[in-house]
From TrEMBL:
UniProt-recorded name of the protein: HAMP domain-containing protein
Keyword list, A-Z: Membrane, Transmembrane, Transmembrane helix
Domain called HAMP: residue spans: 215-268
Keyword Endoplasmic reticulum in annotation: no
PROSITE patterns, alphabetized: GUANYLATE_CYCLASE_2 (PS50125), HAMP (PS50885)
Bilayer-crossing regions: 12-33
GTP-binding recorded as keyword: no
UniProt record similarity statement: Belongs to the adenylyl cyclase class-3 family.
Amino acid sequence: MKIFTFRSIRTQIMASTTLLILGLIGAIVAVWVRSENTLYRQEKLNDTKSMTKILSYTYSNELSEENWSQIRLNIELILRENEDFVYVFVSDNRQDNQIAAAFPSEYQNQYIPNIVPFSVTNNALKSSEQTRIIETFILQDVYFADKLRIKRGEPIIEVASDIRTPTGNKKLGVLRIGLSLQKVDRAVANAVNQALIVGSVGLAVGWVCAYILAQHLSDPVRRLQSSVAQIAGGDLQHRADIHNRGDEIGALANSFNEMSAILQISFSKLQKTLESFEKFVPDKFVSVIAPQGIENIQVGMASTRKMTILFCDIRGYTSMSEAMAPIEIFTFLNDYLACMGKAIDEAGGFIDKYIGDAIMALFDDDATDCALKAAILMQKALDKFNYERLQKNLPKIVVGIGIHRGTVIMGTVGFTSRIDSTVIGDAVNVASRIEGLTKQYECEILLTESVVKSLCHPELFCLRLVDESVKVKGKDAAISIYELLVPLSRN
């Protein structure tokens, strides 16, 4: 389980470096303290052992002659010169280890002093040629010259050595010296303080260095993050501004910029592909059949709409095309469809499909007026187109335009590997039939009664009733048709 979560790289580096430095400092302080503690203890023990051996040798003659006053005087001098000594006992083996000379003096003539645990005394009185050392604690407060030397419960080290005859053959008694560890503890505490000071300085220096390192590493990463956000926002021309770095971050920045360049090229290609796709399938059509994007388009997606349908067809196109070469037909159709398509775009409609020379255009439910405007603009564009053809001694083009309004289904047909968009409905068939009637009634533009009734501003158009009741192919019910008269001035 994570207790702390550091989201920033800078924070992670700072935290990791700080923990590392603290760990190193803690380890150094621990080793230093242990080393100092061992050193001071060993030094005191060596001094005490040496003094104990010397005193044991010195006291052998005094103990043999039972010169107790001299021994006691010597003990007092030792305690004055060595503040670390808390007690000194000299026991006489010939009197069952009775303490003959001692400090504190109240323990003289006793056998087992209660200043230390019994096990310590028992260990000290064992006969051995080696110096006995044992760590214990004091059982009562000890004063010397009315001054407290050690408190009850504090740790001490007792050093015990046998007092033997000069020849070493016979044990005369035991010398026991209690050594306080207060100076050792103070020396260790001083060593700890010094180590902490050094460690604090090291921590401060390490922290500053860690901050500089974190800044050096995190700043370019944050700039990369900002660059990613800009590119994600659509600015594909943006490049990461990270220079003069020969490390992994510099390599990452270079790779990032290369990726950005590739994305820009890919997106440009994709944009051009989408623009080209919109030329095949109008954007208004895509928004209906693929509201979630063209990448999610599927066969059978459909939507029911009420729309105005416009059909436009060239009269006599078949006979005209028979007299033209295929490339001439291709060039002619592109020129013709361009001028007519521009008129439809200007009026707010969109072309659903080209059927040879025929054009099928659609207008939204609220754009019926636009369909009539488109028909007028198409006739004006055709006049200009014919004028240019006459300049080249080419025959005049005559078209018929039929407009109808009704319900259609816009959707996709085909199968998984070939999909096409289409508009299906009776209204489409009616619009096509109305366009066919333009030749019969010798009118340029015909429209149905449903179109007239849906006009928002009928007063803007010049309409003439052509037939109140006409039956179109495929329809049983008769409908009324109207002619849209184009103003005489088409300039």
